[in-house]
Amino acid sequence: MRKIIIPFVIILIGVLFSSVYVVEEGTKGIVLRFNKMIALSEPGLHFKVPGIDNVRIVDAKIQTTDSSKNGMEQKFINREKNYLIVDYFVQWKITDFKRYYETIAGGNSIEDLLMARLNGRLRAEIGKLDIIDIINDANTEMKSRNSLMLRVKDALNGKQPNAKSDENISNGQFDDQSEGNLEKITSMRAFGVEVIDVRIKQIDFPAAVSKSIYDRMSEERKVFARDKRFQGYKKAEEIRAQSRLTATKILSEAEKQARIIRGEGDANAAKIYADTFSKDFEFFSFIRSLKAYEQSFKENDIMVISPDSEFFRYMKLNPNIKSDKK
């Protein structure tokens, strides 16, 4: 009896272990029965029918695919017919696991499909812009790198009505006429994938044209610098001229006020003298004579004049004055 029970227990344990599977956090389990999806398992412990059901674990987190992972340069042509080397990446996640499994079950690679469509859409968008628009992030219009990446992301998510056919996108071919006529969207939703973000990491010119472009940009910066310096000199001269004009006005006004004050002072002094001398004319004449004597008799001067002249009237001794000498 024991010989029968032991094999039965071993078989039971084997069946139990083969029917149990664990889905880790950040992943989903696609349950397959005869290679057809019958269920989607969330993270945790689950059971399946041994020998009939298979489970395929797929990453449910946001994934990043880089254009430079294969070491191939991505060359594009902008509207100015310049070759550009663009390095970019795309972030995506699985939203419809049934469609995703149907895609990969047919032998297709989601990353290859995504990069082919992204590459073609970027080629179309870059072909519409000049290099300054592609590099510039501050442009508020639709001609900027940010708006370019947003348009590409919307196209991959099926939000743009005018896009390329799968054949044109896969081959990297586009033209303005076909873009306006085709209605099929460059969308990854048909494969159960949603694009979260598209970012351009770096834009370079081929080495053959980098030096000429650098020289041209350097000359443009020099012209810009000279123009700024000229504007600075012009502004400085305007400020100096305005300062000199202001200083001249201030000095003129000050001189005007000084002359007015001096004139008023002289007039007041003359009026005081006139009022004072009008009260005693004899005293006024005496003071005038003293000033005349002071101005006339200088050192080593010789004056020929009669002592009886009116000029010496106040120098004569007044007989009415008594002398103290005896």
Automatic annotation (TrEMBL):
GO cellular component entries: membrane
Transmembrane segments: none
Chief place of localization: membrane
Cleaved signal peptide residues: none
Keywords: Hydrolase, Membrane, Protease, Transmembrane, Transmembrane helix
Band domain sequence ranges: 18-217
UniProt topology in membrane: Single-pass membrane protein
Pfam families, per the entry: Band_7 (PF01145)
BP-aspect Gene Ontology terms: proteolysis
Molecular-function annotations in GO: peptidase activity
Location(s) in or outside the cell: Membrane
Family: Belongs to the band 7/mec-2 family. HflC subfamily.
Function: HflC and HflK could regulate a protease.
NCBIfam families: hflC (TIGR01932)
Name recorded for this polypeptide: Protein HflC
Lineage: Bacteria, Pseudomonadati, Pseudomonadota, Gammaproteobacteria, Orbales
